[in-house]
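Journal club side-thread
Mid-discussion, someone asked how the predicted structure for our own chain would compare to the paper's figures. Pasting it here so we can look after the session.
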Amino acid sequence: MALDGVVISCLVAQFKDTIIDGRIDKVYQPEPDEITLNIRTKTGSHHVLLSASSNNPRLYITRQNKSNPHTAPPFCMLLRKHIQGGRIKDIIQPDFERIVEILIDTTDELGEVSTKRLIIEIMGRHSNIILVNGDGDIIDAIKRITSAVSRVREVLPGMPYTRPPSRDKVNPLSVDTAAVEEILSKYKGRVGIAKHIMNSFTGVSLVTAREIVFRYLNREGKDDVLTDDNITQLSEGFTKFFGDIKKGLYSPCIVLDGQGRPMEVSATVLSYLYHLKQTDFQDISSALETFYHDRDRMDRLKQKTAAVLKTVNTHLDRSQKKLGKLLNELNNAKNGDKYRLYGELLTANLYNIPAKADSVVLENFYENMQPVEIPLKKNLTPAQNAQGYFKKYNKCKTAIKELAKQIDATRKEIAYLEGQVDNLGKCTHELEVEEIREELACLGYIKKGAGKKRGGARKKDMSMPLHYVTDGGQHIYVGKNNKQNDYLTLQLARPQDIWLHVKDIPGSHVILKSENTRPDREVLNVAAMIAAFYSKARHSSNVPVDYTLKKYVKKPKGAKPGMVIYENHKTLYVTPDEKKINSLAKPESLTP
């Protein structure tokens, strides 16, 4: 979610409590679209990050120190000239927009005091950081916007600063219940209540709008019809929600998706996402820093995953084409019985075949003397033609055996590669991707990296399987790649533990710890549901999941990582329920 007016109002409140009257000691520009202000106050030093990134524009108080270029960029030098040494007079959020204005009292060479504004506009790809003088004219911006880029609004040195167009939206902090009722009464039921609210009020994102609708109407706000009572109820709730914002009643949090990845950051509790884990924070800056740090980590993970996935898909496509070719060759090789018949019929009728004939019709004594036309090579005798067909028959017979081996090996390779595609989709950490990449390199699918650091041998870090605990206290472990699968099945699991895997398709190894007791049907169903969810069939219903005792699971000699065989199994049919799985406790990962 982009920073909306609610999050920014929470940020402004924190800034006012923290850096008002602070002195700007240093200005840095670690990235082309990012500024860091080092601010010294009576209580200590604070680093404020301002980013006009097109993908993740943001601002907050940060605890991280980024490396800076040896030579400061021009915009950084300009800020140092104009605001370094200045004191922060005030921080405002105009009209609840996604804009923050930092008012800075500065003194020039002649001792004249003036107030400059450092303005941060959080507008997606149009985000910007703009320095404005006391007369309201632009000194410069981190992104200069010419008329060739935007016909609506230029941002250039010397031009008067104007705010981005507001699109006739209403400030939610300046309306009463009656005004909200009037706006909601215009809802026509086309876009959904939440979108109508978002489109009507400044600074209100779809996430905030959905929270208001869910909180006060107990709906998701997508396609509902509003009655008069609904309008009254929602208007009163809307007014209360923003009344709490005026009072500074915030509850910063991050919402994680089912894979533990950061999904939303909010200044208030998001009760409409009740089925997902929410982590609370003392202040909004800590929440934002954690959110964007994890988001950046996920972006890097996505890039690494995509690179490995491209290689796997290339080999998978090649193997699938190879299988098609082998199956076609096998189909042709099955003509061998026909060649044997031709040879036998020719041998039995050598003296009845005219010389230099290009074909002959003979009676098939295997099929009630039915006539069979046999092609001949005119330059060969009948006996030579017969021997030629016997050779073809023997060649086909040999080919069938060899093709059967190749087809089996190719099908196993396809299953392995499809499993790696599934594993890559489950990765939540770069180490898990690296383990898959190393495995593929060892098997020759990826070239082993050159120029690795030399040094003494040390134990490599290992990524950890997922760990769930049921309401009854049973422990369930899930492998997210082949290394984890082998660790779970071959090292962690005991002979009497339950081993589960989806039937005949790529998926995780799942271990249900037995603790010397036989798990009941409900717990077994939960474990099977987890096995189905962490497989290629996660979006299917009635997924077959095999389960057996771990002692019946074996790894064949020479088998690829993650490959096992099993016996004495039974099958459950389950439909994955992500909400139910997410409701299970997830303690810290085990250490191998």
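Post-session note: The radius of gyration is 35 Å.
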